[in-house]
Amino acid sequence: MEDKKAIREYIMSENNSLFVSPTILHIPKLKMDGKLLLQFIVCLDNGNGKGCFASNPYLAKRLNFSQRKVRRELEKLEKGDYVSRETLIKESKRFIHPNYEKLEKYIADESEKESEPKEETRADEVDTKKRERTKINNDEKELPHWIKPKVDIDGNPID
Q1: In the beta sheet, which residues pair with residue 151?
Q2: How many C-beta atoms surround the C-beta of residue 115 within 10 A?
Q3: What is the pTM of this model?
Q4: SS3 of 137, please?
């Protein structure tokens, strides 16, 4: 039992787990692999403005992606303006900068959705009409003969 607890603590430790924020999860134009990569880049950035300087092989190893997958997902993130890449030739480093302004837009969109009352859709309207019809049918006294119960709750015959 002690071993399971130690393994769980190791897995859940800060260095070995990745929490994907609801803000990133709710970005509609990204698939899950892109969301995971974006969240990982945000975590590695630490919000210091310098960006993340992880290499594609490092990102691939940590996320269990192929290097090709990392390259394609980075291209999609850059095309969607979720990140920007900067290469410093002198230092032979590449930095990936999350676009916090764009991510902030999704935070604002989420809070607006939560505060706005839900508009009634066509499906809700049809649902309401069905419930009203069912209520009217159930309130009617005369039921067809095949629906009429032949005995009451106690088992006594009904005329």
Answers
A1: 157
A2: 7
A3: 0.61
A4: helix
Dist. CA 32–CA 151, nearest whole Å:
58
* Interatomic CA distance for residues 99 and 89, integer angstroms: 22
Domains of the chain, by residue range, sit at: 2-113
CATH class of this structure's domain 2-113: mainly alpha
CA angle 88, 15, 28 (to 5 degrees): 70
Calpha distance 56→54 (Å, rounded): 7
User: The tokens of 139 are what?
Assistant: 């309130």
Task: Tell me 156's DSSP state.
Answer: -
Contacts of 107 (CB under 8 A, 6+ apart): 23
Model confidence at 101: pLDDT above 80: yes
d(CA 36, CA 18): 8
Mean predicted lDDT score pLDDT of the chain:
77
| Phi, psi at 117, each rounded to 5° | -70, 145
* Tokens at 24, concatenated: 């990133």
> Kind and range of the H or E element at 19?
none
Alpha-carbon dihedral sign for residues 21, 27, 28, 30 = negative
d(C-alpha 71, C-alpha 88), whole Å = 18
